[in-house]
Amino acid sequence: MDRVQIEALLNEVREGHTGVNAALERLKDLPFEDLGFAKLDHHRALRTGMPEVIFAAGKTVNQVAQIFSRMRENGGNVLATRASEEAFNAVCALEPADQTPRAEFNLTARTITLTQAPTVAGKGTIAVICAGTSDLPIAEEAAVTARLMGNTVDLIADVGVAGIHRLLAQRGSLQAARVLIVCAGMEGALPTVVGGLVNAPVLAVPTSIGYGASFGGVAALLGMLNTCSPNVSVVNIDNGFGAACIASLINHLD
Known about the structure:
38% of the residues lie in helices and 17% in strands. It is built from 11 helices and 11 strands.
């Protein structure tokens, strides 16, 4: 539960629309719920402004589905990253039989999302840029995450430095963004170029795309860490989710 949900619950109790026992029932799983194989941190959104997210890689489809179901029943928005279509089907199987399945699967981003609670809107637009179409899965992961956290997202794909005119054609969108997430593999040059065009924070995401000497994204990571654009900060290889979380926090600052 986040601050908005708890405030709404307390107001319901104060106004007599919800009884104390009913409110206690809804709060009983704070701060966490023990499923045996997982301890769900329902308190995280209240502490950090962002709910716990399911990292599906390494979990069985049944584990993903059970965690997703319990988070759905808790009332907040739910996100699973690095998820398979099999996990999505298992999630849908646990939705109430009398309801149309509401969870959504993004094949490119490998995410499962459920939007069922209001979010505080971000102050501006988060631009998510990727160098090549091969980087799009990471950019999509960032875009899906940022949208679920209440942000307006402008996704700009395939504007790498090998055809710099494609990027320059997007200068208006780049300069209008409050925060930018830039995903690139190969030599990882794109965030430095973008950083030199805008007066906003740029979050660089090295991707694991490239030939042998890219070392699974290490070359791009090192290139981005050595950027000469001072407004660029770097997250881990293929971590579109992490970049989106940071971008969302920045975009919600006054």
